[in-house]
Design goal:
Pfam families: DUF2514 (PF10721). It comes from Pseudomonas qingdaonensis. By secondary structure, the protein is an all-alpha fold. It has one domain. Helices cover 93% and strands 0% of the residues. The radius of gyration is 41 Å and the shape is rod-shaped.
């Protein structure tokens, strides 16, 4: 009987200790779950802020690119330099007069003027194309830089 009472006291102690540890363990698990939920909410908030910043960067970058495209289109539409070159070339190509030696020199000069006018027009068109590409590249670079700064947190 004494052994049974000792055994009963021992089992009761074990059960009490198990209950205490289970209570502590459950409390720790509940705290972990709560901390996890708070951390997840904070990370989601950060992620949403980053995404909104990225969306703004993309929109701003697209505006820069659109403005560059519009400027390039306006520059192509502005034909004043090309028209002036055409007028100068046509003036140079007009006949100089009745003297044969002036007419021959004038014909040679007019061919040179026409070639130079053509070269100038082509150079102007190419410069416009290169400027448009450079403006668009700059817009894309600025957008990329802003996106990187937004992601890296700088």
């Amino acid at each position: 009987m004494v052994v049974a009472s000792y055994w009963g006291a021992y089992q009761h102690g074990r059960w009490t200790m198990d209950a205490q540890w289970q209570g502590r363990w459950a409390g720790r698990d509940a705290g972990d779950k709560q901390a996890w939920a708070l951390a997840e909410a904070a990370e989601r908030t950060k992620e949403q802020a980053h995404q909104q910043q990225m969306n703004k960067v993309i929109l701003d970058g697209q505006k820069i690119i659109d403005r560059a495209v519009a400027d390039a289109a306006a520059a192509r539409a502005d034909l004043s330099l090309r028209d002036e070159v055409d007028r100068a070339a046509s003036r140079a190509a007009s006949p100089a007069g009745g003297y044969s030696c002036t007419a021959a020199a004038s014909a040679a000069a007019s061919r040179v003027a026409l070639v130079l006018a053509d070269v100038l027009k082509r150079a102007d068109e190419r410069a416009g194309d290169l400027a448009a590409d450079a403006d668009q590249s700059r817009g894309r670079g600025v957008t990329c830089e802003q996106a990187y700064d937004g992601v890296s947190g700088d």
